[in-house]
Amino acid sequence: MNAKIQRLAEIDRLIHEPARLMIVALLAAVKEADFQYLHTTTGLTKGNLSVHLSKLEEAGYVAIEKTFRGKYPLTMCRLTEQGRAVLESYRKTMRSVLGKAGNRE
Amino acid sequence: MTDSTLRPMEGSPAMEDPDRLAGQLIQRAWNRDGLPEIAGGLIALYVSGIFVIQLLFEKEWPVLRAIPVALVLLIPSGYLVPWAVKKIRARYLIERTGYVVMRPLSRKKRMWMVLISGIAGALALVAVAASARGYNIPSASQWILAGTGVLGGVLYPVCGRAWRFVCLGAVFAVTGILLGLYNVGYATGWAVLYGVTGALSLISGTVVLLHYLRQSREAGD
Predict the structure, then answer these.
(1) Taking the CB of residue B114, how many other CB atoms lie within 10 A of it?
(2) Of residues B208 and B70, more confidently modeled
(3) Which of A:57-86 have CB within 8 Å of B?
(4) Per the confidence metrics, is the pTM higher than 0.90?
(5) Domain range list for chain A
(6) I want to staple A61 with a disulfide (CB 3.0 to 4.6 A). Which of A77, A83, A95, B180 is the partner?
(7) Quick one: angle between helices B63-88 and B35-56, nearest 10?
(8) Do B22 and A98 touch (CB under 8 A)?
(9) Which residues of B touch A26 (CB under 8 A)?
(10) What residue of A is the nearest CA neighbor of B16?
(11) Residue range A2-98, CATH number
(12) Residue A80 class from Cβ within 10 Å (0-12 exposed, 13-18 middle, 19+ buried)?
């Protein structure tokens, strides 16, 4: 149990932050999404979302591409392979450590 | 707008489970503008209309023909409605809703969808064939109407994830059970069940869409 708990210290803090975890989880569930979709779905302010996306892009977890759909400019975001791997590792760690934590039985 | 039925259902954010969190967010986003409700409401009204026609022209068009016609409409609509909603959104609401490309459904999920559609279709055809051969299952229409109501009542909130879907589900379930109890028969039962819920979905979806457009316009200003 001790070793399991200690695994929490190794968790990736960049995606552990709730807003960033929300962004990464959303991007993992879709193929790609634009900035506006992430803004309306997460409920984060545009400034806040922009900062978090920049951090995730710097870390190489998210790829951002500016494009157009007709006349409408799109800032498309997608999770990179590295981002997907980090999320998978985060998920495994959290499940293994907290899987039964708080269970009253 | 302070209508609590427009608010998403509050649940634990489930930060320890990113899959669940993403699923909830995407599902709420899908129903946010009321378009799926409007589309669903229109289809339900259309199905109700088929049974109303059947009631009006009972001799020329027996119930055995109305059921397959309704099924032919209902089962593919499960595939067509999401496609149509996506197209309308991408064409008219993209600046408000944003643009998203969903991941293709996994083979397992696609298999389940085909299997469930197949079972529903096969059961209906068996029921139609049994009726055509003169088999009479006692109270079958009562159980089927009540069962349809309960199933719809459960599916509405699960698919919608907002309080207004709980209300719609409750109306669907209660209507189905009452119709079953009063033993009104298939045609009347389905005409009323789909008519009531279709009209309510249409009204609810329109209110949500108007609210959504006004809200996003104000946010844009």
Answers:
(1) 10
(2) B208
(3) 69, 72, 74, 76
(4) no
(5) 2-98
(6) A83
(7) 160
(8) no
(9) 22, 25-26
(10) A94
(11) 1.10.10.10
(12) middle
